[in-house]
Amino acid sequence: MRKVSVVLSDFQFLTREGLIHMVENNSDFSLAGVNEGPEGLLEMILDKHPDVLLLDYQSQDPILLTLLKQILQSHATNVLIITNDTQKASIQNLLKLGVKGIVTKGCSKLEIVNAIHSVSKGSRFFCNKVLDLVMTPEEPRVEDCLPTELSPRENEVLQLITKGFKTSDIADHLNVSVHTINSHRKNILKKLNLKSPTELIVFAMESGLVKS
Question: How far is CA 66 from the centre of its chain?
Fold first, then answer.
């Protein structure tokens, strides 16, 4: 099986060395190049055409933002952002630019590895922290009198559950991991004080959460 080629660009020494170690010690990956700053990164991408660019991103850096736009417009690689910036506006700006994947520096090794695999195939991957951040409503909604509010993503998952979608099908449909969907299912049951998927479907139909 062909290895996933990765170019790594991280401006912090310790983080960069940790990511290099992770990539080099994974038999599925091949480290195609390492860059310590924006200088020369676009040229490296256009030369190497890696499957994934793992990029340390700081939203306050206008030079880096310009570089990111150029890389995305080149279509020479799939970009996976790794960041310490968990401001909702910053994450939303990255999504608008067309970034395929976003993880934080607090993510586990497994999440980052899964992210590299997903993004290398052109699929989207956002870690749980990023998903929770983006899907949390700005203000509580008061549209109905239900005892608990589900997030927009939880409502989306619930709609698909009631249509008979399996967990793996929901994950594919929403471009997230099976682990993420399982987390949403558990959260929905907990919020609605239900014990089984059957009770969930009945409750959803009777309460008007979904259309029958």
Answer: 22
Give pLDDT, residue 161.
Answer: 85
Q: How far is CA 46 from CA 8, 53, 67, 141, in A?
A: 14, 11, 13, 46
User: Hey, is 164 helix, strand or coil?
Assistant: coil
Query: 81: part of which helix (H) or strand (E)?
Result: strand 78-83
Distance CA 33, CA 113 (A): 17
| Contact criterion met (CB below 8 Å) for 80 and 100 | yes
Cβ proximity of 55 and 68 under 8 Å: yes
CA dihedral 148, 106, 6, 59 (to 10 degrees): 80
Enumerate domains of the chain plus CATH numbers: 4-129 (3.40.50.2300), 152-207 (1.10.10.10)
Q: What is the pLDDT of residue 143?
A: 43
**Residue 204 CA, distance from chain mean position:** 28
DSSP state of 95: H
Pairwise CA distance, residues 119 & 51, whole Å: 8
Separation in Å, CA 203 to CA 16, 102, 130, 141, 188? 49, 34, 29, 20, 11
pLDDT of residue 140: 46
Give the pTM.
Answer: 0.64
Mean pLDDT by 10 residues, the chain (212 residues): 93 91 96 91 95 90 90 95 87 87 90 93 86 64 50 87 86 91 89 78 66 52
